[in-house]
Amino acid sequence: MQTLTVLFDPRCRFCWQCTWWLGRQPQYVELEFLRYGGGEAKERFPTLNADPAVGELTVVSDAGGVYVGTDAFLICLWALKAHRELSLRLARPRWRPLVRGAFEHLSRNRHVLSRFVFGADLPPEFGGAPKC
Amino acid sequence: MDYLIWSYTIYLLCSVATTVWVGHTLHRNGRIFLIDAFRKNTELADSVNHLLLVGFYLINIGYVTFAVKYGTKPESASEVFEVCSTKIGLVLLVLGVMHFLNLHIFSKMRKRGLLDDAPPPVAPGRSVPVGNPR
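Structure tokens for the assembled complex are given below, as produced in the milestone run.
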């Protein structure tokens, strides 16, 4: 695996911050970021159910494997040099339910969190993938 | 020779011999850890192993020679043993600390090597055809 494409919700400011952070971490596997439901995402992955209203974190590997939600979060951690060990630990059956619960809660409330932390969410027409 | 010279001689001989023995043991038994850590790159593992050994000798023999003049001066045969045992004991403690430090470094290197090759913790839920990146 050489590259992982991360599709994130472009209306969520918190998600932009996360991609900014992810893009700056030393990586085992190169991460690239695309806006969920955006033109390039549709062009690259035409059969992926790109519904911007849902916009759950989705990661597509260079072989076409699709990871959604908690799995996508774990595979992103796995791609980072400093956090691969953590991702392997969190993926164990003992931690998995807790991680799933926490991630799903965070994902459901990402817009609330964005408004709370940054004051406002981003408009849907906010364009451009982060420069990473 | 007076008692002082005897104590120096015994101290230096025992300390250097122990340092060499510990270094040699680490060098021999640490090799397999390093080969595993460097993903079967034997040449690199041997090179790092040798460099670690040089560092180990420098620090330990440096400490041994540095500590020669410290401690009380023996004035009888029994004091020679006391002074030697104290000084050699300190050298052994330093060697023990260095040994565990070495083990820690080896296990860190091995862990890092294993992490580099670790497969993804989760399998993809489904597959999609992939277009060409821009």
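The radius of gyration of chain A is 14 Å. The mean pLDDT of chain A is 84. Further analysis is deferred to the final report.
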